[in-house]
């Protein structure tokens, strides 16, 4: 008998239950995948709390890696025995489980140089880093960026990728220890939250100019500082809202801040095209397999410990990537 983590009501981590589950057989366009590792992402908490509403009861998690056991009619992108990874949104929701039926379209074949654990730790974070570095803004060598949550899973990959592109990385973190982790992965300068005004410190580090791009996954607590850190015609990328949603924005402020831009991107819109997804995944896998980007798995949990995993994530106790080992 398999296991699956579900929630029957929205709320805190305590609503997560590990239950018995049977995967069954795949239908047309589907595959049955036996999981080896499952990714833990902050977005998972948005489903659990109801920020992302879904019909209840519901599974949780959108990222995992494993082996294809069977495929349904019409499936040509994967075959039984293939090592695969996947990430998505509603189309892959329910990844916290030992095995499952999932749409075959999101599945990505894993190259031999990438382990299942590494894949589960980086597919969502790595593809996010890929579009942030390669699609969202015309970054060029010598540009400076501000990176919030620089010691997190996305942050560590972005920092390393940024250095490959010749960028200067200003990383913002909550503790000295996290600052050391971020610095070891490419951050050139470290800002500790609560120690001075972020925008002023960024201006000091950039000779008054500001950064070309600010990547902000913290939200409410850091939005104003990120906006004030941009150079003229720079870009603020709102990746998430770990501290709460950003306040309503008066667009006239964008002109007052130097004709700056603000975007709230979603990974799904950067991997919707199969060719673009294949290109981003290929570049990511090449960097990881060659050792140019290291994926740090600093927390491992069992499925039955899902509630504790969410507590650790929301209290900022985690660094790098976290996974469930199935």
Describe the structure.
This protein is an alpha/beta fold and 326 residues long. The protein folds into 2 domains: 2-125 and 295-325, Quinone Oxidoreductase, Chain A, domain 1 (Alpha-Beta Complex); 137-264, Rossmann fold (3-Layer(aba) Sandwich). 28% of the residues lie in helices and 27% in strands. The protein contains 9 helices and 16 strands. It has helices at residues 42-49, 116-134, 153-164, 176-184, 198-205, 223-228, 252-256, 274-289, 306-314; strands at 2-7, 16-21, 30-40, 58-59, 63-71, 83-87, 99-103, 108-109, 144-148, 168-173, 189-192, 211-216, 230-238, 261-263, 297-301, 321-325. Strands 3, 5, 6, 7, 8, 15 and 16 form a 7-stranded mixed sheet that branches. α2 crosses α3 and α2 (116-134) packs across α8 (274-289). The chain is globular. It starts with a strand and ends with a strand. The relative contact order is 0.15.
